[in-house]
Sequence to fold (399 residues):
Amino acid sequence: MSTPALEAPVDATPRRLPPRAAFALVVALVMTFLAASSAPSPLYALYREAWGFSALVLTVIFSSYAFALLAALLVFGALSDHLGRRTVILAALVLEVGAIVLFWQADSVGWLIAARVLQGVATGMATSVMSATLLDLDPARGALFNGLSPMIGMAVGALGASALVQFAPQPMHLVYEVLLGALLLQAVLALGLPETVTPRPGAWASMVPRAHVPAAARALVLRLLPLNTAGWALGGFYLSLGPTLARLVTGRATPLAGGLLIATLVLTGAAAICVVRQRPARRVLRTSAALLAAGLAITLLGVHLQQALLFFGGTVVAGAGFGASFNAAVRSLVPVATPHERAGLMSSFFVLSYLAFSVPAILAGLAVGAFGLHHTALGYGGVLGALAVLAWVTARERT
Fold:
């Protein structure tokens, strides 16, 4: 007896948001999800002081989020192509609210890991469907905001959380209370999102874990891999061990230093996206590889000399390379997928991105115990710089 296909619920809401308002709401949702994902980073020092865990445990907490996100991308990445975008967005919001409640009540490492895992599932479910929804509503602006919104969201989460840690009472609760209020409001508004695809059978089959890369996109995805890996691995290091490294380089134990480091990386990435969004994607890929390699070299010099100006200056350059490369990659991928392939393709692209985001960070956490943070940062950055140079050479040969 065959398994029945999941059915999308009957549309019972009489009024839907107009396309421009729907686009703005989905952008805001992406920003909130990514703000929630980066908000715990400035709090890790407080958690370590309260519960006494190592750098390795810290990276395990961080990576539990990334691996749960990967699993969700593989299982739910193409689900919205079958159930419809709005249904999956609402499901992701319910899970994210549950994760924030767990963070709010956390009193041990076990609670943190549980919250991070649930948050990873929610964010993974949301990432592909919101990316596809933005492209459905407005392909040109969707490609822009698919890169811009996560960058701004991560910056807001890191800076906002670090400011609350430094200046507000009970930051380990207040951060999550603010996020919870934003998510609940957006969940109510999301009930009015228009549906942008026609639901179709095959939902159960779509949840069998696999990569959903159309044949026409496979060669391109492989070409993008070295540069994409370098950029996301840098982001993973900054969100896990970056605040600790910032305190080491600057000699200051203020939480705001770590939040500022993360915000510097992602906000310069967002600015670069705005600059390059209408330039030829292939040329941007080559330029961004050079920027990422140069930025890493300057950053590593700052780490070695413990010079904050070089450290943050290099982060600005590397962040520009990261943001520009991400935007160019998304713009390169959009034309090679049909509307019903977009969610699957974007989920596969994010699977590769979050593998780069998580696995190297775990290895870095292991290396810190053996070699110390200073030497680990130098070695880690050197490998990423080599990948960026490889991407630059490859892009140059193809031009």
Q: What stands out?
A: The radius of gyration is 20 Å. Residues 1-14 have pLDDT under 50 and may be disordered.
